[in-house]
Amino acid sequence: MAILLGENTKVIVQGITGKQGTFHAKSMIGYGTKVVAGVTPGKGGQEHLGVPVFDSMKEAVEATQATASVIFIPARFTYSAAMEAIDAGINLLTVITEGVPVQDSARIRQKALDNDVVMVGPNCPGLITPEASKIGIIPGKICTKGNVGIVSRSGTLTYEIIQNLTVNGFGQSTCVGLGGDPIKGIGFNECLTLFENDPLTKQIILVGEIGGTGEQQAADLVKKEITKPVYAFIAGQTAPPGKQMGHAGAIVHGKSGTAKEKMRILSEAGITTVKTSSEIPLRIKENL
Amino acid sequence: MPMLYEIEGKQLFKENKIPVPRFRAYTDSSSISQFVEEIGSDVMMAKAQALSGGRGKAGLIKKVSSAEAEEYIQSILGRDHRGKPVEIVMLEEPLEIEKEYYLAVMLDNESGKYLIIASSRGGVDIEEVAEHYPDDIFKKSLSIWDNPFSYLFIDLGKNLGFEAKTLTSFTNLMTNMVNMAKQRDLTLVEINPLILTPDKKIIAADSKVVIDGNSDFRQANIASLKSQRDRHTELEFEADQAGISYVQLDGEIGIIAGGAGLSMATCDLLEFFGSSPANFLDVGGGADEIKIEKSLEILSRQNIKGIFVNFFAGITRCDDVAQGIINASKKFEIKVPIVIRLVGTNDKKGISILEENGIKAYGEMEPAARKIIELVKGGN
To answer: Which one in A110, B62, B178, B375 has a CA-CA gap of 20 to 30 Å to B153?
Structure first.
């Protein structure tokens, strides 16, 4: 089933009656995602987009046995919505919302870890297993089924890369948008391991950005445990040196946040790094 | 990273029972005598407030007598420090120093926990301490759920060499510092140095505070501080107020993109093709036509030679982007060439809105980037 998401995954949309929730739930349903319920407190008992709406996650999960939820809810209410989803027993939580306070994200993340819930996001485009299902906002029409796994910190840049692959005849197993916030749910390493163990995935693309240390940790893991070919693109190669987060951050994690440094570490781990997104399919072709 | 001025950080410290020297803010040099009387000392520290580092080396921090204070304040108010004029000078009571320490509480991105970092070698560049004396740096992490009870910090205090009453003052300070970080959504609180006085009191002689911009909606008092206005250029501030991520750069082509990653990749591409970006601009997910119009208005006030609009829309809709561009072009004249690349959600609708107005849209990023560069270079 590729990774994390398959055609039979039952999904609840939190915030289904809102503007964004409605628009993207409709698109998910159109793509074939099994959207089995929506949750909007105070609107329980109604039907929206042909889907039953519940007042709470607990009621929605009990009625539908859904295992995944996706949050399209304003940032100030996201903390509570995510806690509610985890308490209701779902095991894949995707937070699309942008602008969630980092402390809230840290709390959601810890709760997810404590309950063995896979959390994707916040501030992310979600995930898609082409021709099976999608959770979130990745445009379905640019994807095609195949054997390239994509894991990315970016949203729109990922679409760019997916389209380049599709146009060049490389389909995707699953594409996961991790989100751009400093504190988030799963990272590169969880996805790399899942792709490594997924029989459908034959090669992996990692899309990183300046800042943070996720790419460096990924390089470590690839060196030790990943046997499939990995390609990497890092955005922000020409960005002026960013402002460091005080000295405390530098002591803890070192100063290796620039694109150049990340690309160097990734190449040393045997990963093929590219300068532009359009270079990825060319390099895959060369290596076949 | 949204930082506070030292004096704003110290005000927060004061409100949260973290001991600080007595201080006062000056935007001119009047009524210094009142402060002299209050602290009962004829010497004091004068510190220009700035968001960039290197104040000491720039001569913006000085120990002065009450007689010198007025002239010194006048001499540094308005002086440029790394592109920004000094607008506030803080006068502060001088401290007697027995020993200096380093202390920081940060919300750690990797672990999602609060991390406390402390050293008995404070007052100097802590990165150098970490390099040369790693054993003198102590770390402790606290789960996001933990209550920062003072007993949790006894070991840390003993590692730093605090005894008796000072140890209790230290553990209480730690409790207050962590609680403050949690309650006020601070991602970094750094005290360097924390001063031990000869009478065994500990006092925060400096403050470095980084806030979480995402929490503005529940931290209105912090979000409205002067530092939060001053950390931006005028255009950046306007963009920020409109919910647009915009960073002014000094290249020739203005950029409007959807998504931080794509915006960065667009900057990169212009550089690779021999041009340069005049800005980074991410309209954010789900931007409406008003935000697009605002983005164009901001760019129209920057000195640029061309505009490159680059969207691969997911949560944003191409028809909104197109309509925003048309609205903007009707309200004010866009004097430079503009190239638009538009694909993703509702792209057919967006492209036809542009075509009705005689504008061609590109489907791919690289040909569009080459086109705008050609127009800009050709126009020279």
So the answer is: A110
Instruction: Please compute, for residue B9, the number of CA atoms within 13 A of its CA located in the half-sphere on the CB side.
Output: 25
Mutate to test the interface with A, among B312, B318, B347, B370 (most CBs of A within 10 A): B312
Q: Is residue A53 part of a domain?
A: yes
- Given an 8 Å threshold on Cβ–Cβ distance, is B345 in contact with A139? yes
CATH of the domain at A32: 3.40.50.720
Question: Which tens digit of pLDDT belongs to each residue from A89-144?
Answer: 999 999 999 999 999 999 999 999 999 999 999 999 999 999 999 999 999 999 99
B35–chain A nearest CA distance, Å: 32
Of A110, A139, A238, the CB nearest to B144: A110
CATH number of B99-223: 3.30.470.20
Per the annotation, the verdict on A253 as an active-site residue is no
- What is the total count of domains within chain A? 2
Tokens standing for residue B271: 């550089």
**Contacts (Cβ under 8 Å, ≥6 apart) of B7:** B23, B25, B49, B88, B90
Quick check: ipTM above 0.85? yes
How many C-beta atoms lie closer than 10 Å to residue A219's C-beta? Answer: 24
CA closest to A100 among chain B residues: B214
**Domain limits at A180?**
138-287
Tell me the pTM: 0.92
